[in-house]
Hints:
alpha+beta; six-stranded antiparallel β-barrel; 39% helix
Amino acid sequence: xxxxxxxxxxxxxxxxxxxxxxxxxxxxxxxxxxxxxxxxxxxxxxxxxxxxxxxxxxxxxxxxxxxxxxxxxxxxxxxxxxxxxxxxxxxxxxxxxxxxxxxxxxxxxxxxxxxxxxxxxxxxxxxxxxxxxxxxxxxxxxxxxxxxxxxxxxxxxxxxxxxxxxxxxxxxxxxxxxxxxxxxxxxxxxxxxxxxxxxxxxxxxxxxxxxxxxxxxxxxxxxxxxxxxxxxxxxxxxxxxxxxxxxxxxxxxxxxxxxxxxxxxxxxxxxxxxxxxxxxxxxxxxxxxxxxxxxxxxxxxxxxxxxxxxxxxxxxxxxxxxxxxxxxxxxxxxxxxxxxxxxxxxxxxxxxxxxxxxxxxxxxxxxxxxxxxxxxxxxxxxxxxxxxxxxxxxxxxxxxxxxxxxxxxxxxxxxxxxxxxxxxxxxxxxxxxxxxxxxxxxxxxxxxxxxxxxxxxxxxxxxxxxxxxxxxxxxxxxxxxxxxxxxxxxxxxxxxxxxxxxxxxxxxxxxxxxxxxxxxxxxxxxxxxxxxxxxxxxxxxxxxxxxxxxxxxxxxxxxxx
Length: 561
């Protein structure tokens, strides 16, 4: 049984009993569904539209060899069709069906709230070529649009969710829990393949009646829920709101540290508003559409954070347990949560409020530093600019930035030093045919290195943008490696030609017993001189060697190999 009731997602060796195949009145497969209760099936609204008036739910994973078929209908007003905003971002596309006859409770499954980023998942759908159902594997790329939907990347090109998969349950590969529902699969004009899902929290927002069938703690702690006080709702620190929204939309900064004092009502209300709007489950049309609260650039997309915790009075171990639970790291509860987080490859966007009010702030900072080093993004809120705040800035911002800058300096030194010398040595050995000049790239790399060295003593927050120089370093290093590889292949070909020429020279001398042949000797001298020239024109040398070999073969020398 799963936490909170129902069953875990089935293993890949059998058909999950909660997987539902949905047919329309014409007998064609319209899509898939998830059995949440004995008489309720979750699916996509467009699956219901495709099924038309008569809907049949078929339970392919039921015990025995038969496939029970049960008539179904939309459950009251539990139907939210897909809509698109002015930018084309989709929203909704969920529906709930009511079965005429209930299924056994042990066949049901619960949806589970989990952090979404970078998870491996699998889906059980019913495409045309696999009417009995088949598993599809994918990785969660990240959030897309403003509805809190998630984009998937198929594990293999053929595993894109196709028609017949809409409404299928999405099971997390790590925990086995069903964490969402397939919406669609698409191929764009460039041939790229994508699938999209609606996670449990987004489904709960569109169909609140399903909350009893969704388990796992919510992403936002109760102490961070906004009050119903109309006066506090009207408060907004617009510049602060814009900075929060930028981080929640991933502005490229991994760690953001802010101070929100208890007596700053506007800033506190702005923080809670941002946390609410960035949560898939709490965000509502009403919370977004109030014009007075929505100045430009202040509204983050749903799914901007995976977890928002209030740390006041909590130990680092208690906070780590909350994070591990949200990551789905409960397989080995006997292991300390810190060890589970350290060993996992899961990252998340984490909002931590009241860092300096935790029971042991230094231990909490160490936990946060470990998360940062593992790739998680952190939005940290302090209540005072005290020693704890300054230590956090040094430990989580200044020191990592300096280390990042130092790594970048060393990499640029490697590029402009040994790697560049390797390239020039290769270019001196063989004519760089098809290898374009890297002079402009090397000038840019030298300039970046000089800029970083001049900024070594500056605050990292006010120095050069490391991301821009890292992209430059990646580009130049990739081109260097590619060019060196091409030149190495030319050099290897030169050495191979040198060996062949030497072998045929020996063969020719033996065949002629030392008799001179000016025409053949001239071909040999030309090939020999071209191979010894620096830089060697490998194409010209190859033609000369081939001419010599053909002449030797024509005299009956044969192939020395």
